[in-house]
Design a protein that fits this description.
Distance between the termini: 7 Å
Helix content: 40-55%
Strand order of the largest sheet: 2-1-3-4
CATH architecture: 3-Layer(aba) Sandwich
CATH class: Alpha Beta
Structural class: alpha+beta
Order of helices and strands: EHEHEEHH
Oligomer: single chain
Number of domains: 1
CATH superfamily: Glutaredoxin
């Protein structure tokens, strides 16, 4: 299973939905970076992704985007292959 990293905040319904979808697809561990607790992490996220909103999700080294992007990837059949890619 590929490593999953998610930039998140304490209260974020889209982050919770993204986590639920990933768990439905077999992800057992998500590395979470709380940008609400660390302003430097927010700056790093914005530099890395070019986006300001959470969640921002990486699967392996690939930036997937936010929850809407993740859900679209899943609908198109691309999420499971990305998660299982070695």
């Amino acid at each position: 299973m590929a490593q999953v990293l998610m930039y998140t905040t304490a209260v974020c319904p889209y982050c919770q939905r993204a986590e639920a979808l990933l768990k439905q697809r077999g992800v057992s561990h998500i590395e979470k970076i709380r940008i609400d607790l660390d302003p430097a992490a927010r700056d790093a996220m914005m530099s890395r992704t070019g986006r300001r909103t959470v969640p921002q999700i990486y699967i392996g080294e690939q930036h997937v985007g936010g929850f809407d992007d993740l859900a679209a990837l899943d609908r198109d059949g691309g999420l499971t292959p990305l998660l299982t890619k070695e």
